[in-house]
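Before relying on records like the one below, remember that each one covers exactly one chain. Contacts with other chains, cofactors or solvent are not represented anywhere in the record.
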Amino acid sequence: MRPVSSAEEVGALLSRSDSSGRRRRSSPVQSASPRPAGCGCGGPRRQSSFRDDVGHAASETYLVTRLTFSLLQYLGLGYRWMSQLLALTIYAILLMPVGYYYFFSSQVRRSIVYGEQPRNRLDLYIPKDINRPCPVVAFVTGGAWIIGYKAWGSLLGRRLAERGIIVACIDYRNFPQGTIGDMVSDASQGISYVCNNIASYGGDPNRIYLVGQSAGAHIAACALIEQAVKESSGQSISWSVTQIKAYFGLSGGIMEGEESLSRYSPEIVVKQSSSQTIALLPPIVLMHGTEDYSIPSSASQTFADVLQQAGAQAKLQLYEGKTHTDIFIQDPLRGGRDPLVEDVLSIIHVDDEITQEKIALAPAPRRLVFEWQLQLARRFSPFYFAVS
């Protein structure tokens, strides 16, 4: 599936200004909202039953279904959209084991409220054993700006939680619920919640990493750069760019354009930013498959070039022969030590020799689905083939 391309749809995305309000500047580790009661190092204990889990699964399914029909009502019931939706549904069914983990694992804290909007929720993936504050990944999922949903990050959450990392998957409003400005505002507010509250769940507020995938890479990059602009100009902030140790952009779709689009094109904003703003940005790692037909790897190459020319710390990591979903879904599902997760871990644990040794000695992650399921899912994937 490709990004929204119609001029009318892009105009609608950008028609409203950023809806976020101003906040008083606070300490980076001061809570932006009340901390959960009864929290120890491992966060609040989950008091749940099978009935609760089934009820939650039903409510989440209802939400996704309702949003899907709302989207189709806006886009129309044309053959192209209906075929893409059917392909996505078959693709998801073939990879159902991931969904079972999301709904029924005791390691997942679902739908934690971080803001006032209906989609202002996030999921936390907590490692089984927390003996000391864990590094944290704040993850913004993809979805072509129209089908993004926090549960899409369950596989990444599972794989990183198995390696001792807390993962916060941030949900946000999609089109037509909100504009690009709303999406960036939601993501920024979710990041703020993580920065200010993650210690309550056993996370280390000084070791937070921002990750975005596909459209989420664009949204997360916008939120990060916008925050750096605010911070460098002395505006009120609720979280600090200095809390983000590194930014990972996976298969990112970076919006281009002029005039009204320029505010949400990270490339253009970086070119126009002051040296003080660029100096605040954390190390940036852009990761992309060379056989990505949904968003060509050249998008990440161009963004990396712009960042480097501006003086930012940026590098590009390419994965030969990998598609848009290979590095994010298929490879982790196969089990073993897949390249992308290992590369992310090598950066997160670069200064932690004890954890590096534990990971090296730990059994490789097990396979989650059969190979025939992956091959069949790939045939149905709406993200695999180029869309003309």
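The chain has 14 helices and eight strands.
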